[in-house]
Every structure is written in structure tokens, then in C-alpha cells.
Amino acid sequence: MNLPNLKEAKVRTNKDIKIISDDYKVPSSMKTIGKNKKYYIKTYGCQMNVHDTENIKAILEDMSFTETLDMESADIILLNTCAIRENAHNKMFGFLGRVKHLKESKPDIICGICGCMAQEESVVDDIKSKYKWVDIVFGTHNLHKLPFILEESLNEKKQEIEVFSIEGDVYENIPVKRDSKYKAWVNIMYGCDKFCTYCIVPYTRGKQRSRRPLDIIKEVENLVKDGYSEVTLLGQNVNAYGKDLKLNYTMSNLLEDVAKTGIKRIRFVTSHPWDFNDEMIKVIAKYPNIMPYIHLPLQSGSNKILKLMGRRYTKEEYIDLFNKIRMSIPNVSITTDIIVAFPGETDEDFNDTLDVVNTCKFDSAFTFIFSPRVGTPAAKMKNDLTEKEKNDRLYKLNELVNKYALLKNQEYLGKIVSVLLEDFSEKDGNLMGYTDTMKLVNVKAPKEYLGKIVDVKITDIKTWSMDGEIYEKV
Ligand code: SAH
Ligand code: SF4
Ligand code: F3S
Fold it and tell me: Facing residues of 416 across strands?
């Protein structure tokens, strides 16, 4: 057993990061353990978790399990969890209640918890004492060890907890079962060293570790060979890519090399304003296959709050960067993340946030009420706001954000845009996909168009999506 430890999770040393390419194995005793058995995975959280789930699926299939989308028929149920806010916590414990119920009638079901909540000391303490029926718990640093963890739990018939609160290394050659045949997630870095005062991620994901450029390029080249059209480069702070490698190779170099692989569409998330430099802007503007879409989290428009958050930029610097991006990259769309009701946020601070939204007129924004996370500095800061005040601020912010989202979308009416048709739409007989600027479009098109990048004429606009039809040149 290895338990998470909050103090150890905070540690950052100068220790060199190891690239480990040969640590994934399935012991022979586990290769057919899943024969005629099914797995079900529920995933919470960000794209990184979604991509981790793609790894976990491939690992389970290496043990002969097959996937089911129906939890009731599963022999192994895994919850890949997120710890970013309280409601992510609540969702996971709510779901666990349903699994417990199922396990009462089918005691042989294996239940496992992984992901960011598994990295939290307080959560694992709870699982150990109150959820003894959970069979396995593993963290973000050792998901490739799942076959061994499962083997141990089955052999010993006891709860197996294997979570490491370490800075972490980079593991290559972990198998992956991708959800899409057209677009793929590609990790370019793991962890985060920014330690924004509200955020749990540096504790759950460890130190910033960049993958080697050649490993990333090779992965993208293979995706091109396999017919993929789009890659999204993933990291908590992609703009800081490479800083830990000491190779004098940064995000702008990587973007340029990925662009040269010829993949049709490149996206990247998330960009911290702090590390966004002119070189990056130049490269994005230069290569047509780097999509003109940037997610640039603001968090707050108040300099006082930004300082308390540890974001290391001011409102003015954010707006300058925003304008520079807008002016240098034609047709760019910019989205953001905003937290309201951070400890100490006054009406005036909140108005500063509204002011930035009015200045920047974001294409869209994810908005959140501050949620105290155990172990982070902001959780200890005094917060005088009532629940009503918090909700009112969120409501007011959302109204403004939605207004601009609709206005931005309206600029698309009647225009011809390029869309990668990636799936069936919820509307009958339609396909759906995203424009290069990351606008969701439902397109009237036969299913033969699935997987293609097509010209679409926009016929109708909503706040969160658009409708369109295939545009044929005459
Ligand atoms: N690495 C990204 C953010 C990842 S978390 C960045 O720095 O931009 C995604 C978003 O969740 C954050 O941008 C922030 O807006 C929100 N968030 C993170 N911690 C939070 C907390 N404790 N309470 C409320 N929202 C939070
Ligand atoms: Fe969290 Fe800040 Fe790191 Fe983003 S940059 S993951 S908000 S600590
Ligand atoms: Fe959640 Fe972990 Fe992502 S906390 S947002 S799943 S990095």
C-alpha cells in the first residue's frame, strides 16, 4: 500500500526528470484475466483525464477486457476522477453510491478509483475508512501499473491503494485506445509548477515535465499516417513547454515542428498568459494548420485578486496580450476561464472582471465560483461572501459572457467556414464538428461526410452552437 501525502505532493526539487520507455508490462498471469468480461469507465475532469482514460482503456484491453457503455453489465468499473472543485468531488461520491448498490447484488464486480481525487490525502483517508468495498485506488503517476495493482488486489482479496505523491517522471510507450478516428489528444507535458493559490493541480499531477520533442513529433507523424486530421497538444501550461528540458527548445519551436508534419489541424490547451510570447504568436499566424483559437484563462480582472491568486500578470498586461493576439492572428477566437468570489473579492474587484469581459468580448468563457481545495493557500483565506452573493456574481457574469458569445457567433451568419465533421449530431440525420475557431456546428450532411474537413455555410446561430449546410462551389 502507498498512500498520498499532501506535504510530499508540494515538493519541487532540481532532480532530473527521467524518461522511462520500458515500464509498461502486463504480467502473463493477467493477459487473459478479462476474457468474456467487460469494463466500464466514467471520466470526470479535463482533457488530460479524458486522454488518461484512453490509456486505461487500452491497458484493460491488453488484459482481454472489452468495453461496455452500460455500467450494469460491467465486471470492472473505474472512476477516473477530477479534484478541481467541490462539485467534482460530490459527483464522484454520488456515483460511488450507485456502484455500491450494484456491488451489493453482484459482489464480484471490481470497483476502482483513479485520477486526481485519488491523489488527495483526505479523499483516500475517506475511502480507506468509509468505502472499504472499493477494490483498487491508483493515482495519476502510475496508471500504467494497473495490471499489477489489479493482480495484487485479486490475489490478496483486499483493498489495494497505490498512490504516489511524487514530482514524477515521463512515461513513454503506454498504449492508447483513442475515442476518435479523426482527432487525437497528444500530451506534450505533465504536471504544473505555477501553484496558483486556489488550484489543486500541482499537487495531483506533480512537477512540470515536458515530453521530448522527438517523441511528440513521432506520435503526430504516426497519427498522420493513421489518417488523423487533428491533434490537440495537451498540458496545464503549454506555453511553458520545454522550459524544464534545458534544450533551448520552446513551445514555438514545437508548434512549428508539429505544423511541418503536415497534420491538417493543430490545437493546444491550456495557455497561461504568463508564458505567452511573441514567437508563439508569430508561429501561430504563420502556419495555416495551427488553428486560430486560443484558450487564455483570465481568472480575474482585478489586480488585487490576480496577485492573491498568484497569477503573475495584471489586468493591463492581460488586455495588452489579448489585443496583440487579436491583431496578429487573423480571424482568431479567444476563450477564457473566470473565477468569481475568490476570498477578498469586493464589488469593485468583481466589476474589474466585468470590465475586462466588456473590453475583450470573449468568444466564450468557462465561469466558476471559487471552491476551496484542501491544502491550497487560498483555502485558508477568509471569505466573507454569502452563498447568494457568490451566485449573484456568477449569474451576472454569465449573462455578460453569453451576450458576447452570441454576438461573436452572429458574425458567422451566412459565412463559409471550414469544419471537421467528427461525429453524429444530437439532431437526427445531422453531423457535427468544429470550425477552425472552435465553434460547434451542426451540419446537414449525409454520413459519408464523416471524418472530412468541409466548407460549411452557416445558416443559423445560437449562443453555444450554429447550424450549417455543406457549401458546394458553383
Ligand atoms: N492550467 C489551466 C487551468 C486548469 S483548471 C490554467 O492555468 O489556465 C481549469 C479552470 O478551473 C481554471 O482555469 C480555473 O478557472 C478553474 N479552477 C481551478 N481551481 C479552481 C478552484 N479552486 N475554484 C474554482 N475554479 C477553479
Ligand atoms: Fe492550476 Fe495555475 Fe497550474 Fe493552471 S497554472 S493548473 S490554474 S496551478
Ligand atoms: Fe481535474 Fe485533474 Fe484535470 S483536477 S481538471 S482532472 S488535472
Answer: 457
